[in-house]
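Sequence, please.
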């Protein structure tokens, strides 16, 4: 069947406003957030779940490979087509309805194409928010498909914890619509199938609607930048903060000197908060929150933080070299600007690593001299989530390294991460073309076999036989 007949058939489903065929207009769907880009046959933008169903059914019947796409903010090539020009991008950006808030249940029913910023702006009028803190502005469908985490994972967890229900279009010849939107917090009446679609990058279907649990916006916030005595003090500080602050502790984020230096240099709106502008080797952003206003019988949260920090300074062997208590907006602006600062600094060879919390410092101590010896031109600009073992391990190259060079760097780093520390090559960025080879190399064969069996069983159960291009083939 010709491309023209495909276009005519899809146009009959979504209308001309639901199709993007012009090369210039397709670019924003074809180019990802970091170096990845491809070429789509065309882009289809369904406006309803029923349209998604009909598109999927047509694609399955005609052997068209679909790439479901949310906000296209991912950095592993999971949301963009390849270079073949044969894949069709299925954008959910028109799936913006419904957006229904249930105050009693503290939930929101939301379309997959609603952006995080839009959702939180709407929730804020009711004193609520979706507590996933990111530097990007993704869409809900993509956040669920990748099980997005973020900087406040310590307090609220990843998207999986927020998802109470899903509506999904399955990849079969009927475009079967699976409705799992009861929104119940507890239900052991059957297998909880919604978890098949959280964090699996679209391998099992297109998410079109979700029921999410939302949280009350904090009414008190206290934030500080801590300078640890040395690297060995970092895990000790985390333990001490958890013991002293308990449930108030909502974020513990580490930032290296190089990452801060590059960001201050390239993001003019930021103010360097350190005395005389002297950036320390490492800093830790700490946030405490309460969901209620100040009460006369309890210390205000900034005072609680000051007391905790004073106790840390007064220890016989202090863990802190310095501490800066500042405005939350200013300190978080530094954290959120790090990707922008690094992008302007050079070519970023990025890793989204996950290790045990206790292994973050030992890994960093081991890998730095190894990289300096073999790749002295690289600058390590790392930052990440100390509290959950996540590390955005970014290596900035001053030029334009070729694919062979990047592969050598990746092999060096990941061999230490995975074979030395039993870590993961993707803590929260999920799977895409950029890391398919890593999945193939490092994922145990039994895990791959079981994952592929699940994918096959789901489509066979509805008499289909297709794989989405988007899941970037991981299960196989």
């Amino acid at each position: 069947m010709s491309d023209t007949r495909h276009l005519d058939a899809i146009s009959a489903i979504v209308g001309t406003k639901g199709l993007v065929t012009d090369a210039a207009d397709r670019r924003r769907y074809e180019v990802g957030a970091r170096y990845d880009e491809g070429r789509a046959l065309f882009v289809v933008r369904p406006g309803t779940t029923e349209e998604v169903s009909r598109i999927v059914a047509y694609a399955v019947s005609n052997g068209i490979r679909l790439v479901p796409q949310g906000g296209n903010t991912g950095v592993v090539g999971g949301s963009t087509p390849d270079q073949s020009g044969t894949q069709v991008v299925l954008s959910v950006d028109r799936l913006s309805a419904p957006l229904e808030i249930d105050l009693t249940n503290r939930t929101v029913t939301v379309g997959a194409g609603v952006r995080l910023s839009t959702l939180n702006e709407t929730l804020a009028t009711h004193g609520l928010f979706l507590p996933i803190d990111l530097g990007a502005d993704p869409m809900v469908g993509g956040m669920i498909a990748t099980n997005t985490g973020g900087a406040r994972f310590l307090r609220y967890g990843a998207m999986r914890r927020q998802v109470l229900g899903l509506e999904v279009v399955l990849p079969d010849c009927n475009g079967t619509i699976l409705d799992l939107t009861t929104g119940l917090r507890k239900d052991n009446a059957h297998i909880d199938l919604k978890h098949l679609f959280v964090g699996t990058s679209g391998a099992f279907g297109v998410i079109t609607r979700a029921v999410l649990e939302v949280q009350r916006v904090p009414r008190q916030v206290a934030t500080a930048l801590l300078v640890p005595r040395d690297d060995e003090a970092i895990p000790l500080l985390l333990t001490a903060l958890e013991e002293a602050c308990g449930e108030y502790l909502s974020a513990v984020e580490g930032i290296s000197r190089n990452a801060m230096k590059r960001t201050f240099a390239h993001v003019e709106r930021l103010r360097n908060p350190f005395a005389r502008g002297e950036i320390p080797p490492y800093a830790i952003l700490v946030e405490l929150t309460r969901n209620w206003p100040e009460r006369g019988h309890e210390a205000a949260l900034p005072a609680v933080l000051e007391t905790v920090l004073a106790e840390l300074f007064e220890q016989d062997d202090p863990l802190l070299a310095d501490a800066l208590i500042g405005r939350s907006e200013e300190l978080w602006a530094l954290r959120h600007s790090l990707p922008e600062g690094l992008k302007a600094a050079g070519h970023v060879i990025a890793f989204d690593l996950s290790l045990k919390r206790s292994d973050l410092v030992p890994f960093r101590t081991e890998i730095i001299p190894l990289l300096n010896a073999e790749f002295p031109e690289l600058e390590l600009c790392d930052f990440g989530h100390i509290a959950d073992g996540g590390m955005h391990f970014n290596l900035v190259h001053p030029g334009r390294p070729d694919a062979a060079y990047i592969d050598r760097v990746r092999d060096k780093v990941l061999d230490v991460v995975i074979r030395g520390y039993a870590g993961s090559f993707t803590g929260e960025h999920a799977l895409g073309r950029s890391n398919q080879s890593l999945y193939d190399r490092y994922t145990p064969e039994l895990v791959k076999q079981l994952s592929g069996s699940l994918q096959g069983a789901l489509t066979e159960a509805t008499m289909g036989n297709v794989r989405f291009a988007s899941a970037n083939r991981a299960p196989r």
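The mean pLDDT is 91.
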